[in-house]
Specification:
CATH topology: Rossmann fold
Bound molecules: glutamine
Radius of gyration: 15 Å
Shape: globular
CATH architecture: 3-Layer(aba) Sandwich
Order of helices and strands: EHEHEHHEHEEEEEEEEEH
Strand order of the largest sheet: 2-1-3-4-13-12-11
Strand content: 35-45%
CATH class: Alpha Beta
CATH superfamily: Class I glutamine amidotransferase (GATase) domain
């Protein structure tokens, strides 16, 4: 079986995610295609998608304008696995408020019943790294890189909490959808990308 995994390449950490997914394929011995995607047509070909970190207002606006937002929502709602990282997790939420400026009227995918606090740990200069545990998905130790990261301030009852840091929720899952506030593509350890590739593979069968 061959898998096709895309990285949404509208804005953000695209190359890093292509490389981490390639390492995950290599470590798992999986054959497949890893590609950057932007258009509705490219998105419609995928078995799984990573929405990278970056700037959620930009990713939202540009994907609305080029028609990708609608296709993304349809594909994910109908079961395509997605890993949303930082801005990508913000895109998956139904409500996003900035810690300082409050409600931002930005386009969101409205896939998960979660409320996000954007820039929850401060601005760029307050970036940090810390150890994260995601025991329920067998990743007990992971180096979490937080850059203008959000946290999840409210979750619906159908959302599984994968990790917290300082009492704030920083990783969540619901069926085919995973969101992390930290950046797994910026560390050597590709366990989370491998977990995602395995999820894509199991849901394709
Ligand atoms: N603060 C950014 C936003 O709100 C996310 C930062 C990131 O993806 N590293 O979109």
């Amino acid at each position: 079986m061959s898998l096709t995994i895309g990285v949404l390449s509208i804005q953000g950490d695209v190359q890093e995610n292509l490389l981490s997914t390639k390492s995950a394929f290599d470590e798992l011995g999986i054959d497949g295609t890893i590609t950057d995607v932007k258009t509705p047509d490219e998105i419609s070909q995928l078995d799984g998608l990573i929405i990278p970190g970056g700037e959620s207002t930009t990713i939202g606006q540009l994907s609305l304008v080029n028609g990708s937002l609608k296709v993304l929502k349809e594909k994910i709602d109908s079961g395509m696995p997605v890993l949303g990282i930082c801005a990508g997790m913000i895109m998956l939420s139904n409500t996003a408020n900035d810690r300082v400026v409050g409600k931002t009227d930005q386009p969101l995918l409205d896939i998960l019943d979660i409320t996000l606090e954007r820039n929850s740990f401060g601005r760029q200069r307050e970036s940090f790294e810390t150890e994260i545990s995601m025991d329920s998905i067998n990743i007990p130790k992971f180096n979490g890189v937080f850059i203008r990261a959000p946290s999840v301030s409210d979750v619906g009852s159908d959302i599984e909490i994968l990790a917290k840091y300082n009492d704030k929720i920083v990783a969540i899952k619901k069926e085919n959808v995973i969101g992390t506030a930290f950046h797994p593509e910026l560390v050597e350890d590709v366990s989370l990308h491998k977990y995602f590739v395995n999820l894509v593979s199991s849901l394709k069968n």
